[in-house]
């Protein structure tokens, strides 16, 4: 569009033009300044180039141009207008993981991303060739806001059980259906294992063959006993051979170990640096040396267990971040910041522990060096989970690991929500967002799909 300006003053003046407002980054002014004589008129051209992303909200968007006179800066004026951005839809779906294994069932998750600038409503169904699998999909109908993702849990069950033999691959397809649009198909593979492993079937076959062979030989060569007893009975002498004695039972194995006991859920820990060891040289006499225990850095589970001890009836979440060039931060809890702001340190991994919400689960969305569409990837990494009071780790705690662009998290209590706010590189803090378990949204995605925007800090509450 064009903006016309008239100099109503009595001196030659130069006017500078500056876009302001939410869509200012997408607005350019040519030329950026005009020099006008008194009573003359000039024209500049405004060009709007909103990106094809969810940031360009569909509908009317207000814009403004600040005009500042050089000679009379107090006479600044700001004309305003509206730019209507038309809606567009772009949906992407990915199986996490694409291949699942099991004997009786498989549990893949389908991540559906709304990359458009308007809300998407869709349904999800499953199918395969030969109707070899049954599908339990929850939720089967989803609504996704622009720039957000929805996760659909599915349970695959084979209609026939493989008792013996090798595993079989059963391809299947999830269809994301929208009104008036060709369904989006996502292909996966369910690897069905046999109920009994192949080596056991071979062992049973060999054992059965040996048993039949032994029985045949026993029946063929069984000794026959003939009685030739006569009048010897009168002398009280027996001509029968002595009965063989029963073989001795094998000795009982020694009780060298106690019965197994159930172990606590596994906890991941990072390696620790070696502490100094004291030792004198030469032939010193006298006292023994004291052993000093290596102090382990407190994890999120350490912090949440301390909160649970002081508030056993409450709900708590503690967390820490693994940063570029720094390593693990100290644990923070219940809305405090973990990470750094403005130090150009990307988050590589998160350590999270909860209490009062029946555990938590999560998965990281990371930088993809081989990306061809400018977006990151889930990298085929499965979800990790932990029960109340235990550590859960998402991402990779290595300096060489890819930067974390986002993550998906939930808590295991169907009536409780987890809320998050993240600080992105060059994007400041994002608004706090929560999952909505009462509306069927049991997961929350934080961050961005942009391959160049990483996370720097996080906050959580439950």
UniProtKB/TrEMBL annotation:
Keywords for this protein: Membrane, Transmembrane, Transmembrane helix
Biased composition (Pro residues): 241-257
Bilayer-crossing regions: 199-221
Keyword presence, Acyltransferase: no
Keyword Transmembrane attached: yes
Region (Disordered): 238-308
Gly residues: compositionally biased ranges: 276-289
Pfam families hit by this protein: ChW
Protein's UniProt name: Hydrogenase expression protein
Organism the protein comes from: Streptomyces capitiformicae
């Amino acid at each position: 569009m064009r903006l016309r300006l008239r100099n109503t003053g009595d001196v030659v003046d130069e006017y500078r033009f500056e876009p302001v407002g939410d869509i200012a980054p997408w607005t350019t002014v040519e030329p950026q300044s005009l020099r006008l004589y008194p009573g003359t008129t000039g024209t500049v051209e405004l060009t709007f180039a909103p990106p094809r992303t969810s940031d360009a909200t569909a509908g009317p968007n207000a814009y403004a141009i600040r005009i500042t006179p050089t000679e009379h800066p107090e006479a600044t004026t700001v004309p305003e207008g509206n730019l209507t951005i038309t809606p567009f839809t772009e949906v992407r779906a990915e199986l996490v993981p694409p291949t699942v294994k099991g004997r009786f069932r498989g549990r893949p998750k389908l991540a559906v991303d709304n990359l458009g600038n308007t809300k998407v409503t869709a349904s999800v169904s499953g199918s395969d060739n030969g109707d070899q699998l049954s599908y339990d999909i929850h939720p089967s109908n989803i609504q996704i806001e622009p720039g957000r993702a929805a996760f659909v849990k599915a349970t695959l069950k084979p209609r026939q059980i493989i008792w013996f033999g090798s595993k079989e691959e059963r391809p299947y397809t999830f269809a994301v259906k929208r009104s008036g649009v060709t369904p989006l198909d996502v292909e996966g593979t369910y690897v069905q294992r046999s109920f009994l492993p192949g080596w056991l079937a071979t062992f049973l076959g060999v054992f059965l063959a040996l048993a039949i062979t032994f029985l045949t030989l026993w029946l063929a060569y069984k000794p026959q006993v003939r009685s030739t007893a006569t009048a010897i009975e009168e002398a009280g002498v027996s001509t029968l051979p002595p009965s063989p004695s029963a073989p001795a039972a094998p000795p009982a194995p020694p009780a060298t170990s106690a019965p197994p006991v159930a172990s606590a859920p596994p906890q991941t820990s990072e390696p620790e640096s070696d502490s100094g060891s004291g030792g004198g040289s030469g032939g010193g006499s006298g006292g023994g040396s004291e052993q000093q225990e290596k102090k382990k850095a407190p994890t999120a589970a350490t912090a949440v267990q301390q909160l649970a001890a002081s508030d056993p009836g409450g709900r708590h979440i503690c967390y820490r971040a693994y940063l570029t060039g720094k390593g693990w931060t100290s644990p923070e809890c219940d809305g405090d910041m973990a990470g750094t702001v403005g130090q150009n340190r990307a988050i590589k991994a998160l350590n999270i522990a909860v209490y009062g919400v029946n555990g938590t689960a999560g998965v990281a969305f990371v930088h993809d060096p081989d990306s061809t569409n400018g977006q990151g990837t889930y990298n085929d990494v499965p979800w990790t989970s932990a029960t109340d009071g235990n550590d859960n780790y998402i991402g990779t705690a290595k300096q060489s690991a890819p930067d974390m662009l986002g993550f998906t998290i939930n808590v295991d209590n169907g009536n409780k929500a987890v809320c998050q706010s993240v600080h992105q590189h060059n994007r400041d803090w994002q608004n706090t967002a929560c999952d909505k378990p009462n509306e069927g949204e049991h997961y929350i995605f934080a961050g961005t799909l942009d391959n160049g925007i990483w996370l720097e800090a996080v906050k959580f509450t439950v």
